[in-house]
């Protein structure tokens, strides 16, 4: 019984946490980061102020949680890095996970908040980069380095290669959404964008095939 109550309390706490972060994201977009109070977020989330302050004692801590959870949701963390051995398969898995991640409306909303508030609150941009973008980018960089070390890819500069790969996908899936409110490409078009990015990477970074030795006469 105690275990069931404990599990119930954890589920309830998680539900309240999700309600808080959802309400905060919506209010930050509507009123701006500076114009949104924790008390207003608690009201919109349907929780008491004491419940909100218990989980997020400051507005910065709340924004930090939003950034971290947005980038880690689904398969955005380093633990999702594929095994080495098949460059095409690995890049395809990374590419589709990244497209799913940055294609969520919540991700575009997060970028809009940061961009709108950056002049007054540069720390928000730092959070977005250091807690979200950088860890994800680093996981892709490490994957490419591992394939290079294993001889499955010729990637002398994994930083540039990771930038190229993720940039090709984000340029189709995320950035148009920042300016075009009706940008909603079909799943097949997103799939094709990822596949084209994979093909470009393979053309650039597949190791040159060594010629077969000449048969002895």
Chart the SSEs and their pairings.
Layout lengths: L1 H30 L6 H8 L3 H7 L3 H14 L14 H16 L2 H13 L4 H28 L8 H16 L1 H5 L7 H19 L12
GO molecular function: DNA-binding transcription factor activity; transcription cis-regulatory region binding
Pfam family, one: TetR_C_7
Keywords: DNA-binding, Transcription, Transcription regulation
Largest sheet: none
CATH homologous superfamily designation of the largest domain: Tetracycline Repressor, domain 2
> What is the string of helix and strand elements?
HHHHHHHHHH
Mean pLDDT: 88
Which class of secondary structure composition applies to the elements?
A: mainly alpha
Work out the count of structural domains. 2
Number of strands: 0
**What is the CA-based Rg, rounded?**
21 Å
Oligomer: single chain
- CATH fold group of the largest domain: Tetracycline Repressor, domain 2
Per the principal axes of the C-alpha atoms, what is the gross shape? Answer: elongated
Strand content: under 5%
Q: In terms of per-residue confidence, which ranges show pLDDT below 50 for 5 or more consecutive residues? A: 75-79
> What is the number of helical segments per DSSP (H or I, 4+ residues)?
10
User: Regarding CATH, which class of the largest domain?
Assistant: Mainly Alpha
CATH arch. level architecture of the largest domain: Orthogonal Bundle
Q: Which percent range fits the helix content?
A: over 70%
Give the N-to-C terminal Cα separation.
81 Å
Short structural description:
The chain is mainly alpha-helical and 217 residues long. The protein is 72% helix and 0% strand.
